[in-house]
Amino acid sequence: QKEVEQNSGPLSVPEGAIASLNCTYSDRVSQSFFWYRQYSGKSPELIMSIYSNGDKEDGRFTAQLNKASQYVSLLIRDSQPSDSATYLCAVNRGSQGNLIFGKGTKLSVKP
Amino acid sequence: SQTIHQWPATLVQPVGSPLSLECTVEGTSNPNLYWYRQAAGRGLQLLFYSVGIGQISSEVPQNLSASRPQDRQFILSSKKLLLSDSGFYLCAWRSDRVLGYTFGSGTRLTVV
Asked: Do A43 and B106 make contact, defined as CB atoms within 8 angstroms?
C-alpha cells in the first residue's frame, strides 16, 4: 500500500462548482496533514494544514480530516479557472517525521 | 520574513558531468532543510534532509549527495550525472514551530 494515495485525475468541474479532492494515508500515527497547490512548471505552495479531526475552513477552501478512516479531503467552493492546478496531499511520517507526498490530483476548472 | 532562494532555475547538463545546486534560507535560524525531486509523471520524492550543520540523512540511495556547510545553506551535488537524474529539484525548509514545508522556486534539470 502506498503511503499517500490520491486520484491522479484529471478532475474537471465547471466554474462556480465545488471541487472535491480526496487523499488516503497508511500511517495511523500521522498527526499533520497538508494540501499544496502546484501550478504547471512551478513549485508547490502550501494552502491548507489540518491537525485535528473535523473541518477547517479558510476562505473558499475547507480541509476535512478523519483519522479513524485515514482520510483527508479538500473542498474548493466557487471554483475559479485560476484554481486549475495539481493539488498535492502531504502527510507527516510518524508523529513528527518528514512529509510524504501523494502524486497529486490535477484539477481543471472550465469557464 | 523568511525567504528561500534556489538556483539556477534551469540547467541542461551532459551525461557524466558534475552537478551543484544551491539553496539558501533567510530570516530564520536552524531550519530543517530538504531536497526533493519531482520526475515527469511522478510524485515528489524526498532525497535528503538535514536538521543541522553537517547533518545529512539520505532517503534514497543514488549517485547524488548533499551537504550543509552553513546553517542556512544546503547543497545538492553529483560527480557524474545520469539520464535518470533529469527532473525538477526542489529545496524546502521547515521551522520548529510550523510543520508545513516552504519550497523554493525549483531547478529544472535536463541531462542530455
From this structure: yes
Hey, is the C-beta of A2 within 8 angstroms of any chain B C-beta?
A: no
Q: What is the DSSP letter of A82?
A: G
**Helices and strands: H and E segment counts in chain B:** 0, 11
Instruction: Yes or no: say if A76 and A61 are a contact pair by the CB < 8 Å rule.
Output: yes
CA distance A72 to A48: 11
Tell me if A99 and B101 make a contact (CB, 8 A cut-off): yes
User: According to the model, what pLDDT value does residue A15 have?
Assistant: 98
Tens of pLDDT, residue by residue over B10-31, are 999 999 999 999 999 998 888 9
Tell me if A101 and B104 make a contact (CB, 8 A cut-off).
no
Neighbours of A15 (CB within 10 A): 12
Average confidence (pLDDT) over B3-13: 94
Q: A21 has which bridge partners?
A: A74
pLDDT of residue A110: 96
* B43 interaction partners in chain A (CB closer than 8 Å): 88, 101-104
Q: Does A104 contact B101 at a Cβ distance shorter than 8 Å? A: no
CA dihedral of residues B71, B73, B31, A64 (deg, nearest 10): -170
